DNA sequence: TATCCACCGGAATTTATGGAAG
DNA sequence: CTTCCATAAATTCCGGTGGATA
C-alpha cells in the first residue's frame, strides 16, 4: 500500500506548499531587498510545533532562489553554542574561508563580515534553544545578513531573552504567525501526500478529514497518522484503509513523533525522563534519590556511567528545553512530565526497594 | 528570630573527544 | 601511530536561597 516511504519522513519537504499563500507572500516581501543586493528584513516565524514553520521557510527560500540565487543556510539552534553557530554559518557560505580552530569569536565575526558581500539569509530554527544571545549579536554585525527566527512564542522568547538591543532589532521585523491548518486544508495536504506515497484510492476524503480533525491542524502529526493508518492496513492485509485503521493510527503516530523527539538525547536524559515519568511529578530530592538507587542497573549495559547531581540538573534543563518536562520552584525544584503519554524508550524496573 | 541544612545554579576546573600535524 | 591542540562535556567549588527547627 505504501509505495514511497520517504513521502512520510519528517524531513521531507512538501512538493507543493498548500494553504500558505499569504505567509509565502509576506516572506517574499520581507526578502524582496535581497534581489537588489540589499539585506532582507528580519523575520520572526512563530507557531506551535508541527504546523510547518520550517517547511514554510525552506519552501519560500526555494521560491526566492527560482528568481535569483541567494546565499542562505539553515541552523538547528537547540543547544548550539554561539561559536558553533557562527562556524556553521561560515561553513554554509560558498566563498567564506573557514578560520582555524583557534580563531577568537571576534575573528569569526570578521571572517563572516568579509565573506558576506551579497545578501544572505540565515534560518535559525528552534531559536528558543539558544543558550544566550551572543550569536545574534555577532550576526547583527554582518550588514548583508538577515535572519529568520523560528520560535513557538515570539513575545515569550523576546522577553526571556531580556536583551534590549536584540529585542530592538526584531522590533520592526516581519512577524508571521503560522496557524494550525483547518480540517479541510489539512485534508488537502494529506491527500497530496497520499497521492505521492500511497497506492491509488486507498483512503477516502472523509477519513483524511477525520485525521485532520483529530490532530487539530498539526501537519506533522497528521502526516504521521496517515502513515500509521496505512501501515496498520498493510499489516492486516487489506487493500484499503479502514476507519478502524484511522482510529488506531493516532497513538502510533504519537509514539513515532515521541521517538523522533527523544532520539537525539542520551541515555542520561532517558534515565532521568523515565524517573520523572514514572512518578508523574516529584521533587529534585526524590529524583536524585531514585536515580542513585537505579543507576547501577540502568547503566549496566551501557558504556556510559552514572552522572553526578550537578550534571543531572543540566540534563533536566535540556529535557525542559525539549518540552518534555516542566521545572518549578526556587529552593527545591519540582519536576513533572508535560505529557504522560510520552514514554521513555527505556523502562525502569523496580524503583522502590 | 537565629541557625542549620540540603539544594540550586553560575563559574572555574578537569576530563573526554576528535581532528590535524609530525 | 603518536602528539598536540581545541572544544565540549562533566565535575568540583561555592555563594545564595528557602524551608525546617528550636
Short description:
The protein has helices at 21-30, 53-67, 82-92, 105-115, 134-140, 154-161, 164-169, 183-197, 205-214, 219-236, 243-263, 267-279, 284-298, 309-321, and strands spanning 43-46, 71-76, 120-125, 145-151, 174-177, 281-283, 325-328, 334-337. It is α/β, with parallel strands linked by helices and 353 residues long.
Topology overview:
Layout: H1 21-30, E1 43-46, H2 53-67, E2 71-76, H3 82-92, H4 105-115, E3 120-125, H5 134-140, E4 145-151, H6 154-161, H7 164-169, E5 174-177, H8 183-197, H9 205-214, H10 219-236, H11 243-263, H12 267-279, E6 281-283, H13 284-298, H14 309-321, E7 325-328, E8 334-337
Parallel strand pairs: 1-4, 1-5, 2-3, 3-4
Antiparallel strand pairs: 6-8, 7-8
Helix pairs in contact: 1-2, 3-4, 3-5, 8-9, 8-10, 9-10, 10-11, 12-13, 12-14
The protein binds a DNA duplex (22 and 22 nucleotides) through helix 13 and helix 14.
**Order of neighbouring strands in the sheet with most strands:** 2-3-4-1-5
Percentage of helical residues? Answer: 40-55%
Quickly count the domains. 3
Proportion in β-strands: 5-15%
Oligomer: single chain
Helix run count: 14
Question: What is the CATH C level class of the largest domain, in words?
Answer: Alpha Beta
**What would CATH call the architecture of the largest domain?**
3-Layer(aba) Sandwich
Mean pLDDT across every amino acid position:
85
For the largest beta-sheet, the strand count, sense and barrel status come to: 5 strands, parallel
Q: What is the C-alpha radius of gyration, as a whole number of Å?
A: 23 Å
The rounded distance between the terminal residues' Cα atoms is 49 Å
Low-confidence stretches: none
CATH fold assignment of the largest domain: Rossmann fold
Number of strands: 8
CATH superfamily of the largest domain: P-loop containing nucleotide triphosphate hydrolases
The helix-strand sequence is HEHEHHEHEHHEHHHHHEHHEE
